Amino acid sequence: MLIGELSRQTGVNAHQLRYYEAQGLLEPDRGANGYREYTDDAVLTVTQIRRLLEAGLSTQEIGYMLPCATGAAPDLESCPELLAVLRARLHGLDEHIDTLNRSRQVLHDYIDVTERRVAGRYRPCDSTAPDQTPA
């Protein structure tokens, strides 16, 4: 099948399919006319790539893991160091989530302090003028 048909069957844009090829994730044959020709197995491969991308894996990690993928889920066979790659990626995601949670809390703190200061400066009936109470 040509790239347009693979795109239609998988819902993945042709430029993304060419990117997967450039990353070594897809290997089409070339016809006499130079067009990319994909086997029916390419549909499964693209599905596996998309699912692994959804898991937050890089194309480099996917290139390492793709030979271990079976089925559309994808299920993964026990390939050497496969769990180490998955665990390392999960650890990186957990660290990133922790950092985001800390940043979120700091932003909440800034908002709370700022809102309290704003509420103390402005009278409820005149929210545009600074507090001008006589000293």
TrEMBL record:
Q: Which InterPro entries is this protein grouped with?
A: DNA-bd_dom_put_sf, MerR-type_HTH_dom, MerR_fam
Task: Supply the PROSITE patterns for this chain.
Answer: HTH_MERR_1 (PS00552), HTH_MERR_2 (PS50937)
Q: Where is the HTH merR-type domain?
A: 1-68
User: Keywords assigned by UniProt?
Assistant: DNA-binding
The record's Pfam families line, in alphabetical order, gives:
MerR_1
**Keyword flag DNA-binding:** yes
Tagged with keyword DNA-binding: yes
Q: What is this protein called?
A: MerR family transcriptional regulator
